[in-house]
Amino acid sequence: MPGLIDEGQVRHIAKLARLKLSDDEVRLFAGQLGDILDHFKQLETVNTTGVEPLAHPLPVTNVLREDEPGEPFAPDRALQNAPQREGSFFKVPPVLDQGSGA
Amino acid sequence: MRVNGLEVEPVIGLEVHVQLATRTKLWCGCPLEFGAEPNSRVCPVCLGLPGALPVLNRQAVEHAVRTAVALNCQVAGFTKWDRKSYFYPDLPKNYQISQYDLPLASGGVFEFPIDHRFARVRLIRAHLEEDAGKNVHDFPGFTGVDLNRTGTPLLEIVTEPDLHSAEECREFAVQLQRLVHYLGVSQANMQMGHIRFEPNINVIIHADGREHRTPIVEVKNLNSFRSLHGAVAYEINRQVEAWQADGVTAASGNKSNRGWDDEREVTVPQREKEEAHDYRYFPDPDLVPLTIDAAWVAELKEHTPELPICRTERFISEYKVPAKDAPALVDDRATADLLDHAAEAGGDKATLAKHFLSFWARRANERGQTVAGLGVPAGHLAELATLQASRKINATAAAQVADALLGRRDAAGATTPSPAKLAKELGLLQSRDEDQIAGWVNEVLTKNEKAVQDAISNPKKLQASRGFLVGQVMKLSGGQADPKIVGELIGKRLGEIAGGR
Q1: Among B44, B84, B237, B412, which residue's Cβ finds the most Cβ atoms within 10 Å?
Q2: DSSP B392
Q3: Residue B412: pLDDT over 80
Q4: Is the Cβ of A101 closer than 8 Å to some Cβ of chain B?
Q5: Measured between CA atoms, how close is A36 to chain B, in angstroms?
């Protein structure tokens, strides 16, 4: 049976995830990811007519906190796992544009 | 409008990010502080460390709902959180928590005055999301990342493409900034980047009996009214010229992003992030949904102030304020509230407004304050206005009483004598005793025979001479004479002199 995921899709997802995969790995993961999706395909056999989509598995809503400041990390603590730092900045390879635009 | 000899209709929608005025971040208790040392306002949650769990800030939700209500949006009873995935150094989790298919608010409309009409802009949605950190490019050969800003609460507001010129875009932005500042939901400080705009622009060109639509351009990350106006105006022209040159029209897949170059005042193409739009949104399992019931909305609505546009219109009609001066009274909410309180305390409205716009505004400016910040109680403001409106003191004396009031307060602390007491103490109460004023008038007329003769015999000099005589009487009375009575008595005496009596 042809896989649910082809090698092109694996390369695309790997690129989005900033992963560098060898051709062997692409073939391997295409098979594995296909198997996983195939397993979940069983869900398609469930009749969901009239069933509300589930936003969250927990039957809980409105977990809120008050707007009270806590104690942040000192910069040294925040940076302690950083591969490279410059003063109090994380140091990363040069980024060309103006930010993620979040 | 016409551009390059063509009849064109610009079509513009805006995405606006408003930073909400909370003390802490959206998902953690890290304090929000502009200009703090890099990476000194971070914790496992906003650093995206494994195992850290976000918890929603109630204040951010309430600010968002208040804004949505003021914008006539439908607040969702049930809303949830989604992960928007992309990789960027300023986004340490590798996804932004946002809202995808069930935003906090949808629909809505914002109306604002422009060119003697009301522009009406429909809103598509408003949702909460977190800001990213900052990439700092001042270093040679690498980028510095400061994550203090990550997790800052933003309200993203998206309009329908209902704007049709650069001027409309700017005015929308100005009025929206005023609104969120008024509501207290944002500090709305443009210099600090609290409001950012991203217009989507294209142009319908009417030519050859047909409509041609230029490809849509999104201009990213504009953080001033000037750059918003400049970018939209530039794009309208650029798109018309581009169509004239290449005839390319809007088609699926040819939308592009551009940036604004503030120095050269042009938009420039942005390198497209490859496959950037494959965000793979999915519900965030770390966050449970949020329900907002009618009671909560009603409670927040109750504390919503009168909106600035409505208040401006009311001040113009109620306080008889010229339209151009009204914003100066409305823009600071505490000052506008104080004006209303002083009017409720019985102060004459038109006089109060004049005082607020003249000497109170001057003194406030000198102290780097708002009028409300001067701390004069509403009752005193009202009494001072009433003293003048009932002609017990004149306008100059009112300003002197105001200064005395501030002076005493500065010297002695909170309690000061009332304006009426001060006016009396300073001898500023106007005399309306006609016998006393008649005495002053007679003295002045005797001493100024030439002016009296001019007034009687030379119609060309009548105005000026009478004005001079009134001034002399006011001076002689030390400002105490009621100028209206002085004018009447001088007119009467001049008539008598002219009649040979």
Answers
A1: B84
A2: S
A3: no
A4: yes
A5: 18
**Is residue B331 in a domain?**
yes
Chain B residues 43-72 with CB within 8 Å of chain A: 43, 47, 55-61
**CB-side neighbour CA atoms (13 Å) of B406:** 17
Quick one: B41 and B162 in the same domain? yes
Residue holding tokens 């609505």? B301
- Both B154 and B130 in a single domain? yes
- Tell me, yes or no, if B141 comes closer than 8 A to chain A by beta carbon: yes
Q: ipTM of this predicted complex?
A: 0.88
Residue B457 is part of which domain span?
434-498
Per the structure block, which two tokens stand in for B360? 């109170």
List chain B residues with CB under 8 Å of A70: 24, 28-30, 43
Contact in structure between B216 and B201 (CB atoms under 8 Å): yes
pLDDT tens-place string over residues B25-54 = 999 999 999 899 999 999 999 999 999 999
* pLDDT (tens digit per residue) in B89-101: 899 999 999 999 9
Q: φ, ψ for residue B301 (rounded to 5)? A: -65, -40
Q: Verify whether the Cβ–Cβ distance A16 to B288 is below 8 Å.
A: no
To which H or E segment does residue B381 belong?
Answer: helix B378-389
Rounded to 5°, angle at Cα B31 from B25 and B36: 120
Residue B319 confidence class, pLDDT cut points 50, 70, 90: very high
**Phi–psi pair at B230, nearest 5 degrees:** -60, -45
Query: Which of B425, B442, B461 marks a domain boundary?
Result: B425
Distance of alpha carbon B351 from alpha carbon B395, whole angstroms: 9
Top mean pLDDT of B276-290, B420-434, B471-485 is at B276-290
Residue B322: exposure state from Cβ atoms within 10 A (0-12, 13-18, ≥19): exposed
Give residue B56's Cα distance to chain centre. 29
CATH code at position B485: 1.10.10.410
DSSP-assigned letter for residue B191: T
- Mention every residue, 6+ apart, whose C-beta is less than 8 A from residue B453: none
